[in-house]
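Notes from hallway chat w/ T.B., transcribed later so I don't forget. T.B. wanted the structure written out for a chain they're using in a teaching module, and asked if we could keep both sequence and structure tokens in one place. Agreed to drop them here.
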Amino acid sequence: MRWALVAGALSLLVLQTRAVLSGRAELLRAERATDEANRVMHLRRAARWRAPLSPYPARALDRLREIARRQGDPALALRAWEGIRGALLGTRVLGVPFPPRLREANENIAALRGGARSSDAYRRQLAALERPRGTAPAATILALLGLAAWVTGGFCMPGRRRLGRVLLIVGLPLFAAGVWLA
């Protein structure tokens, strides 16, 4: 069982390292990009490579915000704000990281799409952007618990067949239910 814990810890370390290095690489590509559209694309990718203790997603979000605010081109500003929104929503698990940044992005996207902030079109756009979407935290937790039980059951099968079978039988339906509800 110890080797399974060591293997799991090493796997998490590999995933963490991959996320940090990929975020850094995308940030460097953004700095070397020759046009703003490519820069926005690479910054959005860097922001999506979120991992604990990695500074690169926050830096990428800051740079996307700078691009969106300084551009005279509304289409590029919209792409930058949508990049921020997409990166934040694309990396949520149990909640959205940096909620104030998401709120700011939603407001600016609504203004660019709907016009003046006092108009009905703006309010409709903002309401549509702020409508909750995505996974429910309880469903995510259920899926993760089911997956953990399922995988642990597989590791237990050679030595402890009864425990392994129980975990496999319980884990797979829990995982499937969590994914279906999410």
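Follow-up for T.B.: The two ends are 31 Å apart (CA to CA). Might be a good example for the class.
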